[in-house]
Every structure is written in structure tokens, then in C-alpha cells.
């Protein structure tokens, strides 16, 4: 099993990601993220993998990937659709440098989920979280 790592371009925070995805799923179900290339390791991803979202330079949350299938963008361009579970799971934040596209994330490199009631750091303002992460305090 392997995961994907992806920058959430244009997303401000986890709440914004949830709102954007809720709207997309209502207008054009099922919830999916379209990507130009289909992952070569698709079989490993659908065996329990997730897409880990990097928001504002921090890996903050993940969504289980339920399937991967061929799709078409609104302009007719072929693409791959990553079918996503609408549940967004918070993970222990980790800074990530910018990159293009998506990256594979091995299971042993993935951050653990935030346990309910222990995610107080996610309630802090983003600038404060970034400063604490840089100091190694989160």
C-alpha cells in the first residue's frame, strides 16, 4: 500500500478544503480529484492508500482514495480521477517544500492521524503553527 502527496493549490486551510470539496461533490458527483497522469502504482494506492494534502506548506490532512479511473475534464481532455472518501482526516502536521504534481508517500513515511481531542494545534492560527513547527515544538 502506498499513498499520494499533493499540494492543495488555492486552499487556505482544512475548513476551506472541506467546503470546496462539498460543493464539487454536490455539483458533479462523485467526489474526485482529477490529475493529468494516472499513477503507475494505482493498484497499490487503492489497497488502502490516501491522498495527503499539503496546505500552506504543511501536510495537514488526508482522504482515503476509494478508486482510480479514467475521466475527462470539462474541456474534453483525458485525465485520471482519484475517487475520494469525503471524510477529511487530520494528521500530525509536517512542513513540506513545494513541488509540482503529486508524489508517492510510503506507508512508513506518512504522519499519524490526529486522535480526536488531541488536535488542539490545528486550532491555532496558521502563522503560529508554522512558527512552532519550524522550532520543532509541534
**How much helical structure, as a percent, in the residues?**
10-25%
- Uncertain runs with pLDDT below 50, 5 residues or more? none
What percent strand?
35-45%
Rg, Cα atoms, Å: 15 Å
Structural class: alpha+beta
Instruction: Kindly report the oligomeric state of this protein.
Output: single chain
Give the tally of β-strands.
7
Shape: globular
Major sheet, described briefly? 7 strands, mixed
Distance between the termini: 27 Å
Helical run tally: 3
Describe the model.
This protein has 138 residues and is of the alpha+beta class. It has one domain (2-134). The protein is built from three helices and seven strands; from the N terminus they run E-H-E-H-E-E-E-E-E-H. The mean pLDDT is 90.
Structural key phrases:
seven-stranded mixed β-sheet, 138 residues, alpha+beta, 7 strands
Secondary-structure map with pairings?
Blueprint: E1 2-7, H1 14-27, E2 32-35, H2 42-45, E3 50-55, E4 58-72, E5 78-84, E6 89-95, E7 102-106, H3 126-134
Parallel strand pairs: 1-3
Antiparallel strand pairs: 1-7, 2-5, 3-4, 4-5, 4-6
In short:
The protein is an alpha+beta fold and 138 residues long. The protein has helices at 14-27, 42-45, 126-134, and strands spanning 2-7, 32-35, 50-55, 58-72, 78-84, 89-95, 102-106.
